[in-house]
Amino acid sequence: MRVLAAKVWTPTDIEEAWSLRKKFHLESCFVAGGTLLQTQWEKGVSYPPQLISLEKVEELERMNYKTEGAKRFLQIGSMTKLATCRNHPVIKEKWSLLSTAIQQIAAPAIRNLGTIGGNVVYGFGDAIPALLALDAEVSYFDGKTIKIEKLDHWLNTRQNNEVLLTGVILPEYRHSSFVTQFYKKVGRREAFSGSVVTVSGVIGQNDAGIIDFVRLAVGGGDNRPQRLKETEQLLIGQMIKPLLLKNVYDTILNEFHPISDVFYSGDYRRWTAANIVISELSRLEG
Ligand SMILES: Cc1cc2nc3c(=O)[nH]c(=O)nc-3n(C[C@H](O)[C@H](O)[C@H](O)COP(=O)(O)OP(=O)(O)OC[C@H]3O[C@@H](n4cnc5c(N)ncnc54)[C@H](O)[C@@H]3O)c2cc1C
C-alpha cells in the first residue's frame, strides 16, 4: 500500500477551501471522492504536497429542487456521491437519463465514493454526455460569488483545475407530446479503461411526429464530450425519413472528430457514434 506524503487539509466551507487553493496554488489540488485521483497516482502521476479535501464542506452535498420564476430545476451539490444521484427519487423520475448513465460508471463501491463534481471536473467523465443532453448547468465559486453557466460552455472555456465546482443544475425541460432519451456507452466496464464511445440524446416530437427539440452529445475515451449541434439543427422541424437519416449520418461524421488511441481509431469511434444515433432515430420513424 502506498502512503501519501502529503498534507491533507479539511476546510469546512467554500471560502476556506478556495483560500487554501489560492495559497498553495500549483502545490495543491482538491480531492472529492478521490477515486479518479487514486487511479492517476497508482499510475505514477505525482501528487501535490497539499491535498484539499472537500469532504467536510457540507454545503457541497446539498440537493435542492427549486422554482425561480418560470424556471424549475434541481441543484445537485458537487460532493453528492454518484450512488446518491443514481438512486435519488427525483432524479429517477425527472432526469432518469442521468441515473441510467451513472449506473454504467464503475462498480457500486466506486460509485459510493466518487462524486458527480469529480466526474464533471475530470472533463471526460461518463456522466457528462448525459448532462449535456439534459442541458445541465454548472455552478462554481470564483473567489467572490457563485457563478452559473451552461456545462457545454464551461467545458469549452474553463481553465484546467482553476475552479471550485459547487454544483450541477438540471433544468426541467419543455415537454413535447413524445420525449425519447437514450444513453449508450460502448466499451469495457470491468476495468477503468475509458469508454470507446458514449452517446446520449433527448428528442422531443409533437403529435404530428415533428421533432421540436433535440440535444445530442458524444464523448468517449480521451475525447472531450461535445454536443452535436449541426446534427441537432438538421433534425429540428423534421420528421424522421430515410433521406434525413442519411444526412444525419454524414453530418455526424463531419462534426465529430475523435482522436485515435492504441485500441481504437478515431474513424471507428465516429462511425460507432453515428450508427448509434441512427439506430435511436430509426425507432422514431413514422
Ligand atoms: C475502478 C474504477 C473505475 C472507474 N470507472 C469509471 C467509469 O466507468 N466512468 C467514469 O467516468 N469514471 C470512472 N472512474 C473514475 C472516477 O471514479 C469517476 O470519474 C468519479 O466520478 C470521480 O469523482 P471523485 O469524486 O472520485 O473525483 P476525484 O478523484 O476526487 O477528483 C477528480 C478531479 O476533479 C477535481 N475535483 C473534484 N471535485 C472538485 C470540485 N468540487 N471542484 C474542483 N475540482 C474538483 C480533483 O482535483 C481531480 O482533479 C473509475 C475509477 C475507478 C477507480
From TrEMBL:
Family matches, as SUPFAM superfamilies: CO dehydrogenase flavoprotein C-terminal domain-like, FAD-binding/transporter-associated domain-like
Transmembrane segments: none
EC number: 1.2.7.4
GO molecular function annotation: anaerobic carbon-monoxide dehydrogenase activity; FAD binding
One Pfam family in the UniProt entry: CO_deh_flav_C
Domain FAD-binding PCMH-type: 1-175
UniProt keyword Flavoprotein, yes or no: yes
Keywords tagged on the record: FAD, Flavoprotein, Oxidoreductase
Family matches, as PROSITE patterns: FAD_PCMH
Top-rank EC class of the record's enzyme: oxidoreductase
Matches recorded under InterPro entries: CO_DH_flav_C, CO_DH_flav_C_dom_sf, Diverse_Substr_Oxidored, FAD-bd_PCMH, FAD-bd_PCMH-like_sf, FAD-bd_PCMH_sub2, Mopterin_DH_FAD-bd
Protein name (record): Carbon-monoxide dehydrogenase medium subunit
